[in-house]
Amino acid sequence: MSSFRMNVMVCGGTGCMASDSNEVIQSFEKLIKEHGYSEEIQIVKTGCFGFCEQGPIVKIEPDNIFYVRVHPKDVEEIVKEHIIKGRKVERLLYQEPIKRERIEQHKKMPFYKKQLRIALRNCGLINPEDIYEYIAFEGYEALGKVLTSMSPMEVIETVKKAGLRGRGGGGFPTGLKWEYTRKSEGTTKYMICNADEGDPGAFMDRSILEGDPHSVIEAMVIGGYAIGAQEGIVYIRAEYPLAIERLNIAISEARKLGLLGENIFGSDFSFDIRLKYGAGAFVCGEETALINSVEGKRGEPRNKPPYPAQKGYWDRPTCVNNVETFANIPPIILKGSEWFSSIGTEKSKGTKVFALAGKVNNVGLVEVPMGTTLREIIYDIGGGILGGHKFKAVQTGGPSGGVITEKDLDTPIDYEHLMEIGSMMGSGGMIVMDETNCMVNISKFYLEFTMDESCGRCTPCRIGTKRLYEFLKKITDGKATMEDLDALKQLAYMVKDGSLCGLGQTAPNPVLSTIKYFGDEYIAHIKDKHCPTGECKALAKYSIDPENCVGCTACAKVCPVDCISGKVKETHVIDQSKCIKCGACFTACKFNAVIKP
Ligand SMILES: Cc1cc2nc3c(=O)[nH]c(=O)nc-3n(C[C@H](O)[C@H](O)[C@H](O)COP(=O)(O)O)c2cc1C
Ligand code: SF4
Ligand code: SF4
Ligand code: SF4
Ligand code: FES
What we know:
The chain is α/β, with parallel strands linked by helices. The protein has 24 helices and 19 strands. The strands form 6 sheets. Strands 12-11-15-13-14 form a 5-stranded mixed beta sheet, sandwiched between helices. The termini are far apart. The structure holds flavin mononucleotide, iron/sulfur cluster (3 copies) and FE2/S2 (inorganic) cluster. The site of FE2/S2 (inorganic) cluster (FES) has 12 residues, from α1.
C-alpha cells in the first residue's frame, strides 16, 4: 500500500452517490492531478459515514476535518483553501442547529457523540475496494487467530459468551446457532449470509456491504470454520448493485491473497463464497424461503422444524446469519467475549445499527449500544423532529413491528424491552412520525406492503392480509362502521395465530399497535368521518375562510377542476360537489384562508 500525506475521503454510499458524490470524486481527482499532487494526496471513495442527511460527506485526513453537503462546485475551494493553503473551508463545516456553531470533527457532533461503531467500524474509514486498507485496520487478523490458535468449539464458545444475538430480527443467540449446525449430522454444511434486507426504509446491511464488505467475508470464513462448512453463499437482492459490485471485488481480492479458497492461511481449512441474487421479495428474507430461493425454487417458507441448522440448503445443515450479525464477529474474536458482553443490557449485548428515517432532522445510519433510549436516538442523535413539529410515534421492526409513543421513549432499547412495549427490534428500521401522520393510514401502508409481499402459501396470510387491508381502506375512505373495527381486530388475531411464517404472524402488528395507542383516530375516521390529521384524502373537506380570504385568486388558478369561484378582491368559494381534494389550493394560499380539516 502506498503512503500519502493526505487522504480525501469521499462518501461513496448509495445516499451520497444519489447527491452527486461521484462528481465530487471526479472533481477532486481532476484538480489534484492538475495541481500535481497525485503522488501525495489520495482520493478515497468510502462507504456510508452514517450522516446521510448531510451528504455528500468529505473527510480530510489526517486533519480530521469533516465537510458536509459538498457539491461538485465546492471542490475547487476545498482544494485551493484546505489542501493547498491549509485553511479549512468554514462554510462547509457542519453547523449545529441550535447554537449555530460550526463543528470540525465528526466525533464532536451530536449525531456521533452517543454512537458506538462496532459493526460500522470501517464504514467511512477505508476504501472498501482495497483489501489492503481493510488489512491495515486489523482486517483478517481475527481469521488468522482463529485458524492458527483456536478450535472450532473455542470459536463457538467465544461467540456464545459474547452474547451476540442475530441482528436479522429474531435475536437468536448466534453462538448457539453455530453450535447446533456444527453438531448436526453430515459432512457437507453451508454458511449463508442473509443480505435480503426487505424492510421498507432499512439500509443497514446494504451500507455494511458497501462500506466494509471484507468484514462480512472474514466473518463468514470464521463461521464456516466453526460450523464445519466449506462453502458460503451471500443471498443478496439484485437491487443492491453497488453492494454486489464491492462484494465481488472483495471476494476476488480475498481469493488472490489466499484468504478464501484452498488451505486458508496455510491451514488445512478451505472455504469459498459465492453470491446468489434475490429478486427483492420480502418473504425471501425468511431463512427457509431464502434457502428455497437459493435452490432455485419458489421463495416460499418451509415448515419448521426441521430448522436450517438440521436440514437446510439441499437438506444439509445450514447456518443462516444476517449481515450485521457477521460484521460483529471479527471484533469479538480479536477483543474477546468479555469486551463485547460488557456493552449493552443484561440480555442484549453489543450495539445495534438503526436506519433512522421519517420526520426526524438527522436521517441516517446510527449504531448505538443496546440500552440506549429511543429518546436519545430521536432527539440527541436524530436532532429532534423535522420542522419543529411534535413527535407522535416511532415505528421499529418495519412491517412486523409496532408504534411506540411518547410515554415509552425512555425505554432502553433491547430485544425484550421493545417486545414489552408492543413493538420489536426487527432488523433496524426506525421510522419517526409527527402529528401530521395519520396512524390509520400508516397501518394501511404496512398492510398494503405485507399483502403484496405475502407468498400466498397459507390462507390466513394470503386472504387475511387482503381483508385487513380492505378494512383499513374502508376506514380511511370514511365508509366503515364500528362493527368493521371489531371485525378488523378479530381478523388481526386470526392472521397472527394461523399464519405459517413470520411474515403473516407479524403482519397484523402495525394494525393492533395503532389501534391500541391511537384508537381515537380510528373512531374519528369511523364515527365522525374525519381524519384528524387531514392525511386521508377521501375524508378531507377543503373550504375557504371568508375572514382570511383576500380574493387574490391564487387558489382558483391552481385548481385542476376549476371548482373555485370568486372575483378579484372578493371572497372565493369551493364547489364541494366538484372538488377532488387534491390540496393544491391549500398549498397555494398565502393567507391561511383555505381550511383543511
Ligand atoms: C418475512 C421475514 C423477512 C425476513 N427478512 C430478513 C432479512 O431481510 N434479513 C435477515 O437477515 N433476516 C430476515 N429475516 C429473519 C431470518 O428468517 C433469519 O432469522 C435471520 O436471517 C437469521 O440471522 P440472524 O440470526 O443473524 O439474525 C426475516 C424473517 C421474516 C419472517
Ligand atoms: S404466512 Fe404469508 S408469507 Fe408466510 S407462508 Fe403463509 S402466505 Fe407465505
Ligand atoms: S388563495 Fe387564499 S386568499 Fe387567495 S383567493 Fe384563494 S382562498 Fe382567498
Ligand atoms: S382541493 Fe383541489 S380540487 Fe378541491 S378546490 Fe382545492 S384545488 Fe380545487
Ligand atoms: S451515504 Fe454518504 S453518509 Fe450515508
